[in-house]
Amino acid sequence: MDRKDLDRINELYRKSKDIGLTEEEKVEQRQLREAYVKAVHNNLRGTLENISIKNPDGTITDLKDIRKKGIQG
After folding, report:
1. Helices in the chain by DSSP H: which ranges?
2. Entry pTM
């Protein structure tokens, strides 16, 4: 997602509040919002997978290892 897409999301939002959107613009807005949410999700996942937890016994556990093992908690 680049700056142009974010600007377009904001533009469509403002237009929806002022005069409303055409059906085509509503579809575009929905697609852009879905792409934005996916980008944020992927960014967050990447950040979380680079976090390590220091356990009380001094060992280090990577969050990505926990996710791969399917451990919940």
Report:
1. 3-18, 23-48, 63-69
2. 0.71
